[in-house]
Design goal:
The structure is a single chain. By secondary structure, the chain is mostly helical. It has 1 helix and no strands. The protein has a domain of 28 residues. It is flat, with a radius of gyration of 31 Å. The chain starts with 43 loop residues before the first helix and ends in a 7-residue tail after the last helix. The relative contact order is 0.05.
């Protein structure tokens, strides 16, 4: 299939990548304090609040689904 006269050939000229960055010796690894795991479990208070928020969202979704069926479409 011949090319359309609206199409043109073009070339892309890329700028060469910059030289890699070389860090000084002083920029070596840093000693960080050891991380401590205080408890592997969530607190009971946080768990209760997350459950309350989850049930509130599920209740809101239930209300929207039930009420949404009774909203007239206007058509």
């Amino acid at each position: 299939m011949p090319r359309s006269s609206a199409q043109s050939d073009f070339t892309v000229v890329r700028v060469p990548d910059a030289a890699p960055v070389v860090l000084p010796e002083a920029a070596g690894p840093v000693a960080l304090p050891r991380a401590e795991l205080r408890t592997p479990f969530a607190s009971a208070l946080a768990t209760r609040w997350v459950l309350r928020a989850t049930f509130a969202m599920l209740f809101a979704l239930l209300v929207l689904c039930v009420v949404g069926l009774h909203i007239p479409s206007g058509g």
